[in-house]
Structures are given as C-alpha cells and as structure tokens.
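Hey everyone, long-time lurker, first post.

I ran two proteins through the pipeline my lab uses and got sequence/structure pairs for each. Pasting them in order. The first:
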Amino acid sequence: MPSLNHVQIEEVARVVQGMGIEPMNLYDPLYYPESNEPIDRVLMYFIVMVAMDHRLSKYGRVYQVELEGRVYRGADLLYRLGKIRYDKHPDFFEPINLTKIDVNDVIKWLSIGGASPPDPEIRAFLLRDIGEKIIKVFDGDPTNIIRYSSGYLRRDYGYGFIDILKVFRAYQDPVEKKSFLLAKFLSYRGLLKISDPLNKRVPVDNHLTRIAIRLGLIDLENIYREKIVRNEVFTYDEDILIRMSVREAYRYLSDIAKIDPFHLDDFLWSFGRTICVRDKPMCTKCLFKEICPSYRSNLFLNEHRYEDTWYY
C-alpha cells in the first residue's frame, strides 16, 4: 500500500513555502462567464464544465486544435468551447435542456477540427444525470446545492458541499477530484463561501499524481513501480489507493507550507503541464531539481495508467 514520505514532503514544503502562488483567474472571458451574469446560470456553467473535465486526450489521440489564431489543448480547449457555447446558447446549460442531451449533441459541441472527446456517450449520460437531478433533487435551482451545504465542505451532522455533489454520477469519485475542483472554482468566483477551510483538499488528477511520484512524496511498493514501468493498466482499487495517498501527501504539504490547498493546486496543475510533463520533463527549469529523487537518479516514472474513467 502506498505510504507518505514525510521527510520528502517537508523538504518540498520548504521550497513551496516562499513561492507566492498567484491564484488562477476565474473571470477570464475566454473560458468563463462574465461577473455580471446571473448566479444560477454561472453555477450551471461550472457544474457542467467540471463534470466534463476528464480524460480528453486518450488512446494516443491529443485533444488539441488551432482556434482563433492560437493552439488550445486539453482543458483549455474544453473550457473555450464551453464559453463559446455559453455566449451563443446559454440555455444549453439549463437543467431542462441537459435532460435531452444525446451523443450527437456532445460531439457537435466538443468537436472541432481534428479534436473530439473520446467518450461522447458517457458525457451525454453524465449531462442528462445532472439535468434530471437538479430538477428532481434541487427543485430545478442549482443554488440550492450551496444553500443546503450552508457553506461547509464537510459537516459532522448532515451533508456538506462535497457530500451533496455525490448525488450526481459525474461527482462520485471516492478521491473527489471534480468535487474539489468545483469547490475551488466557485470559491474563487465568490459563489461558495467556505466555512471550513481546513477541509479543503487538492483535486487529484494525473498531473498531480505524476508530480507526487517523481518528487517522492509517496513511496510506492515495487509491485506498483514495476507496473508503471511496464505501462500496465491499474485496477479501480489501485487507482483509488494511489490517488488518495497523493491527496493526503499534498494535505500534509500544504499544512507545513501554510499554503491554501486550492492555491497549491493552481501551481501544481500548471507545473505538471509545462515543466514536469510526461515524456520530456524540463528539469533544468524545475525549482525542485536539487531535492528531486527522480532528477538525481535520472529515472522519471509517469503516473499510473488508468484510462477508462470519468473521475479525472
């Protein structure tokens, strides 16, 4: 079973501590609704878009296209297409419309040039599920999700925001990647005022997992390391064990460094896309290279292979 390497976590925390991380801009008009948009529409936009935020590049196909004079890739392309749809057809994100979404709707929306989502059937199913449950469980009003939580992520008695989201199939990941990503986005927009900040966690995806493994924040048993080297597919349970260990490592790191876990995620996600990348990590530009066991050994493991999921 993976374990936390507390000594290495403390080493990394000392580097992170003085970085002065700038939170991401959730008002960028290329990707997100403007600040004067109705709250219910903004909520639905983020609930839908985060639900779609998984496994865009898969089976060797990269989700990337040149659009508007620049190259968009992965989540950037997803949210750009989401914002274009929101600007032209904001009713697309309304619960009643989501209940009618089919595969062709998803393909038409999220495909452009040679880029297309790898699982349109699953995405259509997740969107219909959101629409139906917003109507049935929350009386058609997405603001009730926040109202019912009273601003708590977790509650000793009753349900916090993270727990409430589990009613939606898109948000049932045991490691809660999408749930904490949505909480981060909504808190940055001022829509979710978090009453229990100690319950914040980083939303663990493939980038954060890869960084944790390479930096040695978690110790993997040889059986797992060998599976990664052989590029073998991990099981559902193994995926949960590894990602939960990664999440706890970052919780400990953020506590030591006294950094908001959401701000830490902003840095790590960008770092994983630009520096600590899969195939050719940019170690000469890495601020962790002096304490990185992978850099010292010149052995760079990737994240474990687990592709067929809508969790992350």
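...and the second, right after it:
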Amino acid sequence: MTDPQLISSPLGTRVSVRRHVVDNLRAALISGELRPGETYSAPSLAKKLGVSATPVREAMLDFSRDGMVEVVPNTGFKVTAVDERQLDEIAETRLLLEVPVMGAVAEACTGEVAAAVEALRPLAARLSEAAAAGDLVDYMEADTEFHTRFLALHGNREVVDYVRRLRSRSRLYGLQALADAGVLEETTSEHGKMIEIALERDRTAMEDLVRQHIGHVRGVWAQ
C-alpha cells in the first residue's frame, strides 16, 4: 500500500472539511499523484490532509460510486486503472449514448429547453477560464456539470447517470493527458459551439460535433 505525499491546502473558515478533503483528493486523482492500481488507506490519506479518517472515507466512497476508485475491504481504496481496451470501450459507449441524445436535445431546443441551454453559457465560460489557468479540478467539475445538465434536457436520467460515471473513469486518464498535450483549451471551445448549434436546432451538426468532441479526446489518450 502506497503512502502518497499529498499537498494539503490550509483549512479556512469558509471552506468545510468535507470540501477540503474532496478537492484535495480529486486533484491528487486527476494529477496522478494517487496512482492507478495503487491502494491507499483512509488513515494515511487523512494524516496527510490533517483531518480525521471519516471525511476521507466518505469522499472515497463517493469516488467509488463514480468508478474512480475501488473499495478494498479491510484495507482501503484502490485507484481504478483503465487500459487501452477499456478506454476504447468507454469512448464507444459514450458515442452510442451521447450522439443521439444530444442530437435529440438540439432538435427539441425551443421554449424551456432553449432557456436551459442558454443558462449553460456561464459554465462554458468557467471551462475556458479553468483551462487557461490549468485548474484541472475546477475544469473537471464544470465539465461534468455542463455535460450532465445538457444531457438531462433529454429527460432520461439513466443515461445521464451512466455517462457521468463513464466520464469520471476516463477523466482519470484523459484530463491530465489533454493538459499535457496543450489541447485542453482547444477542446474547451467545443462547449460554446454545442450551445450555438443547439439553439440553431441543428441535429446533424450537433451529432457531428459530439462525435468530434469524444473522438478528439480519445485521440489524445492514445498518444
């Protein structure tokens, strides 16, 4: 079992212990400081973060539900390792689900749906700012919220939940790779295009853009 050298940010009066723990652990997962295939105990992580083991266990259990870690009974949590075949399968599954769903959202983009799409603009701006700053934690949070809210406009909650978990698993590998390759800002620009295409009610263009978006990311994973 590996003992990581987590960098603990100071606990402030306006930041809850829970948020402090979640943010630090998510950052460590995204950056690779908590390495895929390695197992970590809640007490050792808690010691590095300067907190009790309880909020660490709670946070890691949340991550396990998203497929980012696996629970190892009586030991701790193992960071999920994703191989090339799994990355291909994740990308293929996302294409099967997200392309038709996003196309349907674009086709139905009038009234309340159009208003909800317009409301995604601040998230698209937040993504651009996070990408420019290299803030991968904020980027992942905004990216997940953007896509799940967009998909939710279709009305199928099972699709939203499944895609969210798929995205979480692949982000352990893909997000840092995108940043390292210098194309994070480029892929971020596609979020604004999704909003514009949806408001134009162009189903074909939306489906093409979603294929491009997922394919672009998978291409970086392969590098």
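Reply from user beta_strand_b:
Welcome! Quick read of the second one: The longest helix spans residues 157-181. The first strand starts at residue 39 and ends at 40.
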